[in-house]
Each structure stands twice: as C-alpha cells, then as structure tokens.
Amino acid sequence: SKKRGLSLEEKREKMLQIFYESQDFFLLKELEKLGPKKGVITQSVKDVVQSLVDDDLVSKDKIGTSVYFWSFPSCAGNQLRNVHHKLEGDLQSRKKRLAELVEQCDVLKKGREESDERQDALGELKAIEQQYNELKVEMGQYADNDPAAFEAMKKAIEVAHAAANRWTDNIFTLRQWCSNNFPQAKEQLEHLYNEVGITDDFDYLELPATVPLGPVGDHMLEGKP
Predict the structure, then answer these.
(1) How many domains does the chain have?
(2) Which segments does the entry list as coiled coil (predicted)?
C-alpha cells in the first residue's frame, strides 16, 4: 500500500529532532538537505521551520549576510512551561468568568420562577404586543391620509402650478416678441409652435377647487425666471 505522508505536526517533530540531536546552528539550505533524511521533503522544510519559529520553538537570527536557525531542548522546555503558565492563567480567568455568569443567572432567575401569575402576565404581554402590531399595520394604511402629508402635497401642487403658469407666461411673452420682431416669418413661427405643442388651445392651467391657491402660488406667479 502507498505510504502515508507526514502530517504538519509530525514534520515539526522531525525537524525539532534535527536540532535537538545536533544542538548546532543551521542555515536553511542545510536544513533542506537534512529534512528528507527525517522524512520531510525539501519543499516543506522552509514552511515547517518557519512555523516552529512562529511558535518560539526554534530561534532565528541574522549573522552577517546569513540567517541561522537553532533550538535546544532546554529552550523548548522553557517555551512549554511558558505556554503551560499562560494556559493555566487563561483557565483560571475562564473559571472566574463562569462563576460570575452563574451568579448573574441566579440573580436574574429570582422573581421569574414559573407560576400561574407569571404565565398570565406573559399571555397578557403577548396579547398587547399582537394588538400593537395590528394597530401599527392599520396606521400604515392611513399614512396617505395624514393631514401633514396632505398639506405638504397641497403646497407642492401649488408650487408646481405656479411654475407651470410662470413658464406659460414666458412662452406667451416670447411668442409676442417673435411676432413683433419677425412679422415676415409668421407662418414659419406658427408651424414651429404647433410642432412643439403650442396650439390654439394652449393656455394657463387652472388649479382644482380642492387645492385653493395659497400665498405660495400667488408669490411664485409674480416673478419670472
């Protein structure tokens, strides 16, 4: 059967063995030659060694133009002891936090014990929430009839009406000016007017009786752009 490749942890152990057995300093290219003798292929050596450096299991330093790697059993022991102390501290911190949460949970449970009175209160709360949601939906149906929204629409209509009539007035003024200054082009001008929609029935717009013209509209009619 085909031989199974080494896992990352197994490769790390094999590379550490190289350091521990020799207790020497190595260049990366030297480690890449020694790795295959331990079953770690050359292409994996660099990544494996770097993972050991990241975990402080292997030391790394640049001396001159070369980068050396080394690791001694005592260094690994110190590192493991440091990790152990850190994990022990984290464990104690987690236990303390757990105790605090249990205490908070016990405090919150007081007054919330299951009872007929509590069940009735929860049922009443649920009914109120349901009624609230129904009223909220009903209010949404009347949003278009909101007096404030209706008033805003009236004002918007007044402004639009005033603007339309203001431009109508401008068109009449321009049309008169063209007639006075180019009487010889009367037919051409009439043809142009018809093409753009200025026909004989072109006139000022009347505001519906339901939207009386307010001071906004009157004010807008006074000026021209």
Answers:
(1) 3
(2) 84-145
**What SS3 state is found at 151?**
helix
User: What letter represents residue 59's amino acid?
Assistant: S
Two tokens at 84?
Answer: 């152990």
Question: Please, what sign has the CA dihedral across residues 143, 146, 151, 154?
Answer: positive
Bridge partners for 14 per DSSP: none
**Any idea how long the chain is?**
225
- Number of alpha carbons in the 13 Å side-chain half-sphere of residue 171: 16
Element (H, E) at 184: none
Residues 16 and 66 in one domain: yes
Do strands 26-27 and 59-63 pair parallel, antiparallel, or not at all (unpaired)? unpaired
Domain that holds residue 158: 147-196
- Of the chain, the end-to-end C-alpha distance in Å amounts to 92
Average confidence (pLDDT) over 94-100: 91
List C-alpha distances in Å: 176 to 132, 170, 217, 222.
Answer: 63, 10, 25, 19
Q: How far apart are CA 220 and CA 225, in angstroms?
A: 10
DSSP H or E stretch at residue 207: none
| Tens-place pLDDT, residues 154-192 | 888 888 888 888 888 888 888 888 888 888 887 888 888
Distance CA 159, CA 61 (A): 79
